[in-house]
Amino acid sequence: MDLNDSSDDSITLEQESELLVSERLAALVVGLPGQKEILYGIIDFCRTPQSPTSVDQKTLEMQTVKKSVYSPVVLRKLLEESGALMYLQPAEPQAAEPQLTVPPPAESQEAEACNDDDPDYLTVTIRPEGQWVATDEGLSAIDSADPFAELKQLLVVEANYRDVFLDLLQYCAKESRSQKELDAFVQENPVTHKPRRYGGYFIDRLEAHKAIVWKDNWSTTEIGKEFLARNSYAGAQV
Amino acid sequence: MSEYYIEIIDVMQGRMATYRFLSRLYRKEVDQELLDQLIAMRYPVKSGNAEMDAGYRMMHGYICSTWERTLTDLAIDFARVFLGHGINAHSAAYPFESVHTSAKRLLMNDARDEVLAIYRANGIEKTNAWREGEDHIALELEFISLLIERTLELLQVKDEEQVFSLLRTQLNFLDNHLLNWVPMLVIEMQKFAKTDFYRALALITSGYLTVDREILEDILAVAKLED
Fold it and tell me: Of B42, B66, B76, which has the smallest distance from its Cβ to A126's Cβ?
């Protein structure tokens, strides 16, 4: 064993760090039902540093079809706490010239921080705003998310409703459907009768997996359509 | 009116403003109106008290970085510092005298009864809007500010005897109540605060109460305002 080789240790630490952020992000998604798409969307938007105002605008855009009690500021705060986003403090203004100077006495330095008019008081000068940027761990968490694998997992976990999920995807792929239509559609399958399951049960899960989306009505997303194609699902004739 | 008399009025106005300011900061979260005031404020550099200077400098630094997230951050920190998660009596810097002066950190204990009696003896009642105990720091600070307001009215009519009586009441209240527990509160505030704002408030409060006690002692030592 090469004692000078510390690469194994560093990989372990990196993996651990990544796992912690992804775990925290996963817990956040579970804690905020229905907000996964928005949370991931904010992280994705912050691949490059963004001003708080532009992040807010983006969040509000995403919230237009998905109303939320969580304000953009709160969502950012939660993502920051999970380690998926970080706030870049604005750079302190640097004096370009001169590079070398004689330091003033301590007394003058103190006065310099104060108001020029009255050295006994400090007045507030608002510093420039910082920026939000996604952390490597946050990006890794959303980039490693495989919607097809997650959707497949849903059908494994809820195997008894597998056909209902797939039929719904196909139903909404042909044209967008209302909630009422979906409620009636799922009732056609006897497996939803006992225990009684209404459309909302399936819609919530498919939406959380980005397989359907609400745009005035419910329609199957590209992910949902691709999933149907990959699985060559003929399903019910709808 | 002598110069000293005018100076005393000036000092009282400054004291009243400071007590009202501190009381407001403890009463509820910072809102936009207060934040605007904090931005417009001037922060003393050399107050003569190291704690106050450090506190004002820290608060100035925080207020210089006020953006859209400041109010949310402050609201979260206010809840963290003063409300806590409520699991036990050590979950936050509880702003009630009873908590810090009773053996089991209980609310509504002897200290609350005492301050309530003092408020009543001075003809002061809490409004219905206030639903917390009377020994909350915001009320104790406001009580002093009300006494200072009365002192100013008496100074205008030159009722020296009543002025000194009120100043002695303020000194006694400081000694027997605020200075008896606020030093413990501010240590806990430092422990629970995550923002420099509430850390700074702890320093300013502690420093100011000490300074104000010295001011009151100095004025009472003279015992005469005008020749």
Answer: B66
User: Domain segments of chain A: what residues?
Assistant: 8-89+132-143, 147-230
Q: B32 — contact with chain A (CB < 8 Å)?
A: no
Chain B hits for A74, Cβ within 8 Å: 72
pTM (global) more than 0.80: no
Fold annotation for A147-230: Arc Repressor Mutant, subunit A (1.10.10)
What is each CA distance from A215 to A63, A68, A222, in whole angstroms?
A: 12, 16, 14
Complex-level ipTM = 0.75
What does the block give as tokens for A204?
A: 């919530």
Count of pairs with CB atoms under 8 A, one residue in A, one in B: 52
Peptide bond into A195 cis (omega under 30): yes
Q: Which of A56, A122, A125 sits opposite B45 (nearest CB)?
A: A122
Q: In B, which residues are within 8 Å of A77 by CB distance?
A: 69, 72-73, 76
pLDDT at site A120: 82
User: How far is Cα B77 from Cα B84, in angstroms, rounded to an integer?
Assistant: 9
Between A68 and A118, the higher pLDDT residue: A68
